[in-house]
Structure formats: C-alpha cells, structure tokens
Amino acid sequence: MIGKITADPFIEQVKNGEAKALFTQVKLSTGEIRTVQLFPGSGDETWPCKGDVVVVERKGGFLYASCSWDKSEPKRKPGEREIYSRKTDGKKAASIFLDGDGNINLNGNDKRLVTYAELNQELQRIWTAVKAHTHGSNPSPDLAPIILDISAAETKTIKTGG
After folding, report:
1. Using one digit for the tens of pLDDT, what is the confidence trace for 20-62?
2. What b/e string do you get for 28-50 counting C-beta neighbours within 10 Å, with b at 16 or more?
3. What are the residues facing 95 on neighbouring strands?
4. Cα–Cα distance measured from residue 18 to residue 14, given in angstroms and rounded to the nearest whole number
5. Residues paired with residue 36 on neighbouring β-strands, in sequence order
6. Domains of the chain, each with CATH number or no CATH
7. Could you tell me the pTM of the whole model?
8. Lower CB density within 10 Å: C or N end of the chain?
C-alpha cells in the first residue's frame, strides 16, 4: 500500500532489541496513521522528509516502508544515477550525478577539479622561471625569499582519477 510521511523520521530501538533503526509516522491510503520502520536498503542511509510518499508493506503485525519518493520529476537518462541530500524542507542540498558518459558531477558541472600534484608542479616550474628571469645585460634584482605554498589547496577527502 502507499502512504505519505506525516512526521520527521526518528531513531528508536527495534522490538527485538538488536539495534536502533529509523521509524516515521505514515498516513496510509486508508487514512490511518501508523508508525513504520524505514528500510532504505543495504549500504544506503537515507532519511526521507515529511511529505515523501512511501511504499508500505505488512509482515504479520509489522509495518515497514521499503522505498520512498520525494515527488521530484525524473530528469535522468537510462543508466544514469543521481544521489542527493535534502534540506529539512525537502529541497535538494548536495548532489553526486553519474552520467552515461562516465563523468561524475559534484553539486553541478560548471567547475572543474584540479589535481594538486600537477598544479603544484606547474606553479613551481613557473616560479623557477620568474626567479631566473633577467632584463638584457642587467640581472634581475635579488628577490626576497618567497615560498610558493599551495599545500592548503590539497583536498584530503575528495579523490579523482580523471
């Protein structure tokens, strides 16, 4: 059956006491409001938002929701995938889009990532050329020691093979 989430999800101990799980209140297609456990799928921790539509299944006296829909219109092509988080009002916050051409877009596609090692190598090459530059027969004046340090630009948590 179909239901609509009427309250923000919450964490609660499961009945057998094994672990904590995610639950929410759902208004079922019958009009009845029930508490259901959310089952987003292995390897996926998803907190749906109030107003999302869910598929509710019954196993004995136990109700659970196995998937949800945020009512956003599908925009992707066959084979593509987008993963995104949402603000509590349901609006998209961060996204990772994997397109059919093998590209990965993080929060859009209007900027490009630069790899630290290659950027550092090129900047050091340019800096060496600047320091060695002369003006005709007059050598460049001694430059005060300047260190070109871009180490803060190196990301530690986002890696790329592209």
Report:
1. 888 999 999 999 999 999 887 666 677 888 888 999 998 888 8
2. beeeeeeebbbeeeeeeeebbbe
3. 84
4. 7
5. 24
6. 2-69 (2.40.50), 73-111 (no CATH), 116-153 (no CATH)
7. 0.60
8. C
Residue 54 near residue 2, CB atoms below 8 Å: yes
Q: Which amino acid is present at 110?
A: D
Pairing, β 2-5 against β 53-59: antiparallel
Which tokens is 109 given?
A: 């596609």
| DSSP structure string for the chain | -EEEE-S--EEEE-TTSS-EEEEEEEEETTS-EEEEEE---TT------TT-EEEEEEETTEEEEEEEE--PPP-PPTT-EEEEEE-TTS-EEEEEEE-TTS-EEES-SSS----HHHHHHHHHHHHHHHHH--BTTBPPPPPPP-----GGG--SS-----
What's the CA dihedral at 128, 132, 134, 139 to 10 degrees? 140
The two tokens of residue 31 are 């009009």
